[in-house]
């Protein structure tokens, strides 16, 4: 079976529909066809400043949501990144193979650091994509199911894998991005040209899996739509309406064409009202299941400990062979 690795940051009290439609949703069926490793990437979550108690809480909430959308610890390896110290250890080696200029070209760093300001931007945020490369290479992943925003980081991962292999001998699998075009970029409800994001969207720009459906309905109602009144799919000219159609289609299983035909002659208000209902129906069972997992944190932590053991069974030998190839003296 081909191997898959992907991760999500515990940087908010809830995942949003971009996370779900761009990534999580694809992780579920891959459990049947791939050897799957999914992690809550807490090391990444401390790159922008954080609160310790909140991080601990969000790490559990993240794991609970992953289970609630259909990840099954019997069929995948679900773990917390910091439970597997080899991520940080391999990241150091990868840091030493990455050029400053190369890392400096990463668009996510430019965006996030510009928003934070130079004084508050950490070196950790700068080397974030290199840690991400380590996450992936540690497991010899063949495929990495992510949203469009991660394409450039995947390209860096591939370059680093190839560089290591050429310099020190074949060690790493060069991974392929797995990006599902239709839902690769869900946009912000208030700014339909920007991606929906846990850390940079305003609350009104997000539809969260765990929020009260009435609140989500209100946000959908006030979503920025486009001039004109026709409901058509045109991401260039009508990014707002097109984003709503994309979400509607993905959650309902109806094609965009079907929806466009069904809303012929109707207004944006009708579309928004119906979408809010679709969202409410969709999130209800996810919220119930998430709460059930959170009701028993001891059980959740035990499950994550088992996941970490399974992950380390792959990560430890990979790091050992990397240390050997680069010439670190084995401890006597
Ligand atoms: P942050 O703002 O903290 O970076 P995020 O919303 O970007 O949070 P991540 O945890 O960084 O979420 O990413 C988890 C996964 O969700 C990644 O695979 C990423 O590509 C995907 N993803 C994030 N936002 C979107 C989006 N708007 N559309 C599609 N996929 C997305
Ligand atoms: Mg992100």
From TrEMBL:
One Pfam family from the record: tRNA-synt_1b
Enzyme class: ligase
InterPro entries in the cross-refs: aa-tRNA-synth_I_CS, aa-tRNA-synth_Ic, Rossmann-like_a/b/a_fold, Trp-tRNA-ligase, Trp-tRNA-ligase_bac-type, Trp-tRNA_synthetase
Keywords tagged on the record: Aminoacyl-tRNA synthetase, ATP-binding, Cytoplasm, Ligase, Nucleotide-binding, Protein biosynthesis
Motif ('KMSKS' region): 195-199
Sites where the protein binds L-tryptophan: 135
Domain of life: Bacteria
Location within or outside the cell: Cytoplasm
Molecular function, one GO term: tryptophan-tRNA ligase activity
Xref: SUPFAM superfamilies: Nucleotidylyl transferase (SSF52374)
GO cellular component, one term: cytosol
Catalysed reactions listed for this entry: tRNA(Trp) + L-tryptophan + ATP = L-tryptophyl-tRNA(Trp) + AMP + diphosphate + H(+)
One GO biological process term: tryptophanyl-tRNA aminoacylation
Family membership: Belongs to the class-I aminoacyl-tRNA synthetase family.
NCBIfam families xrefs: trpS
Subunit-structure text: Homodimer.
Protein task: Catalyzes the attachment of tryptophan to tRNA(Trp).
Protein name (database record): Tryptophan--tRNA ligase
Lineage: Bacteria, Bacillati, Actinomycetota, Actinomycetes, Micromonosporales
